[in-house]
Specification:
- Helix content is 19%, strand content 28%.
- It is of the alpha+beta class.
- The chain has a single domain, classed as Porin (Beta Barrel), CATH 2.40.160.120.
- It is globular.
- It starts with a strand and ends in a 39-residue tail after the last strand.
- The C terminus is likely disordered.
- It comes from Caenorhabditis briggsae.
């Protein structure tokens, strides 16, 4: 067998039909602002509760950010069609890794969803739905479905400050089920650290392993630890992993979590690892290139990023489309949908003062609903006996008459169309 070699990866330009390829305005990079002035008064407090200026946000709700997981759902379609269990695990692991790729260089904070805020997405044969089911603590419930699979889970993010870095733990727990076989896979998103939040150029690293467990024979584990790879003060982008049968490493998984993932025989990777690491460090500054060990299978290559990637919150093409309201969509989506947020639209347009006003208005209205104990029961997810949030299956019937008008100006505190259905009850999420 030959030696590892650096190869180029062809990245596909994937655009949703009719989508935009740029935002209306540019943005202020976080490193151009003294974030220390914002953080200092909040030291020792619950970081999930303190408010940052709107210009420190990206024009997306956290629920929309969760929908970015749908971007590479074709990997799950491939996995569903695999007869070989090992190959199925390879593609599931590739999907799990691909879901974190949109985090590359994303230092701006998404908007905190209001309680009962929702976001839906129908794309490439998949339906996705997220709802904010709790405000304190913040919990988002998600559900996605295609002809081949379902994905469900919850995300309960926390932030903490340590020295000069922020630690973000998504507490994201996801479960994938293939419909035909009933086979299940579970995993949690990795923690990450954002460095230089007081001064200097900010960058991020993942700081924990990511384990994918299956109901079948094989499990997989990804590691983002620096094991000889060059940390170029821009964040480590390498990833290594293994597919296990019990405690035995069967296959190696390796690559660049922003660009590609490959698999090969475990013994081959072990034999070539030193040379591979050297080539990885040499290729890290070259566009769309990385080392590949002979005999490897390329499982995933990330989509091409926009030309204005650096000037548009580091959004992918997929992300750029998430806040668009296409023709006919306004009459279709729920009144709680994130696309209706006027604060995010104003931020997209570079109208920061207007965005701040709308954001403050939404937050005040939410506090009033909380005080009145109204509008606090999630509509599309419910807690089961084990305390897990499960989708109730009703959203796509599109009966929204009982939904809050969260984002419309209303002299009656955005009252529900049917207040009785949203009054306080024992199933309240807050």
């Amino acid at each position: 067998m030959g030696s590892p070699r650096i190869q180029s990866f062809k990245r596909q330009t994937v655009l949703h039909k009719g989508q935009r390829t740029r935002l209306p305005a540019t943005y202020i990079a976080p490193e151009d602002v003294s974030i220390w002035d914002i953080i200092r008064p909040n030291l020792g407090k619950d970081f999930s509760r303190f408010t940052v200026p709107v210009f420190m946000n990206e024009p997306l709700s956290f629920l929309q950010r969760l929908s970015e997981n749908v971007q590479y759902n074709y990997l799950l379609e491939k996995a569903a069609k695999c007869e070989d269990e090992m190959e199925r695990m390879e593609y599931v692991a590739a999907f799990a890794l691909a879901t974190v790729s949109a985090n590359h260089k994303r230092m701006s904070k998404p908007f905190n969803p209001l309680l009962l805020e929702t976001f839906e997405l129908e794309r490439n044969g998949v339906r996705f739905l997220a709802e904010q089911v709790s405000h304190h603590p913040p919990i988002s419930a998600v559900y996605a479905e295609s002809d081949e699979f379902t994905v469900e889970g919850t995300v309960e993010p926390t932030l903490s400050f340590w020295m000069t870095k922020l630690i973000a733990n998504p507490h994201a727990h996801l479960k994938l089920t293939f419909k035909k076989t009933g086979e299940k896979f579970t995993w949690s998103a990795p923690k990450c650290a954002i460095y230089n939040v007081i001064m200097g150029k900010m960058y991020m690293n993942f700081t924990s392993h990511m384990k994918i467990e299956s109901s079948g024979t094989y499990d997989a584990v990804f590691s983002f630890d620096n094991k000889g790879y060059y940390n170029h003060k821009g964040g480590d982008v390498h990833v290594e992993g293994h597919i296990f049968e019990g405690k035995n490493k069967i296959k190696a998984l390796y690559g660049n979590w922003t660009l590609f993932l490959a698999s090969c025989d475990q013994d081959d990777f072990k034999h070539h690892r030193k040379e591979y690491v050297q080539l990885f460090n040499e290729s890290i500054h070259e566009k769309d290139k990385g080392p590949v060990i002979p005999g490897s299978k390329i499982l995933w290559v990330s989509n091409q990023i926009p030309k204005l990637f650096e000037d548009q919150f580091h959004f992918t093409n997929f992300t750029l489309s998430l806040n668009e309201m296409y023709a006919g969509m306004s009459e279709k989506v729920a009144p709680t949908d994130s696309r209706r947020r006027k604060d995010m639209k104003a931020l997209e347009d570079g109208k920061n003062d207007e965005a701040e006003e709308f954001k403050h208005k939404y937050e005040e209205e939410q506090r009033e609903r909380r005080a009145n104990k109204t509008g606090n029961v999630p509509m599309w997810f419910a807690k089961d006996e084990d305390g897990h949030w499960s989708y109730n299956g009703d959203y796509w019937a599109r009966e929204f008459s009982n939904c809050l008008d969260l984002f419309e100006s209303n002299d009656n505190n955005n009252s529900t169309r049917s207040n009785s259905s949203l009054s306080s009850s024992s199933s309240s999420a807050d």
